Amino acid sequence: MDKKTEEFYIRLKEELSNTSAWPTEYLYKFIVPTEAKKIEEVENAFDNMGAVIKTTKSKTGKYTSVSINVNMNSPEDVVAKYIEVSTIEGIISF
Q1: Among 15, 30, 32, 82, which residue has the least CB neighbours within 10 Å?
Q2: How would you classify the pairing of strands 24-33 and 92-93?
Q3: Using CA atoms, how far apart are residues 49 and 68, in angstroms rounded to an integer?
Q4: Are the C-beta atoms of residues 46 and 78 closer than 8 Å to each other?
Q5: CA distance linking residue 51 with residue 70, whole number of Å
Q6: Which sign, positive or negative, has the C-alpha torsion 71, 77, 79, 83?
Q7: What letters, b where the CB count within 10 A reaches 16 and e where it falls short, cover 43-55?
Q8: With bands split at pLDDT 50, 70 and 90, how would you rate the model's confidence at 1?
Q9: What is the Cα 84 distance to its own chain's centre?
Q10: Could you tell me the residue range of the domain that residue 79 belongs to?
Q11: pTM
Q12: Are 22 and 81 in contact, with CB atoms under 8 Å apart?
């Protein structure tokens, strides 16, 4: 992980600590290329967590938005999940 990414996650952890009472429901949003395998990889990362997952294809169908509502125990858990899914090729987190 590069220094800029590491600093981003540190800042995110701090903001989450200061703005939320934990555990809390967290909304993840990702964009992935519209390939069943990539969408499945994102969904599998949240398997057995009681997550509510919604997918929406872009107008052109080239990309799919994946929104995931899930209860998380701590800011560290939120960041760990972002790091876990960051290995999926072509994924964009926001």
Answers
A1: 15
A2: antiparallel
A3: 11
A4: no
A5: 4
A6: negative
A7: eebbeeeebeeee
A8: confident
A9: 9
A10: 3-93
A11: 0.91
A12: no
Give counts: helices (H), strands (E), the chain.
Answer: 3, 4
Residue 82's nearest CA partner among 29, 40, 36, 15 is 29
pLDDT tens-digit readout, 27-58: 999 999 999 999 999 999 999 999 999 999 99
In this structure, the number of other CB atoms found within 10 A of the CB of residue 91 comes to 17
Query: Which residue type sits at 91?
Result: I
Q: Which residue bears the tokens 């395998």?
A: 37
CATH number at residue 60: 3.30.70.260
Q: Give me Rg for the CA atoms of the chain.
A: 14
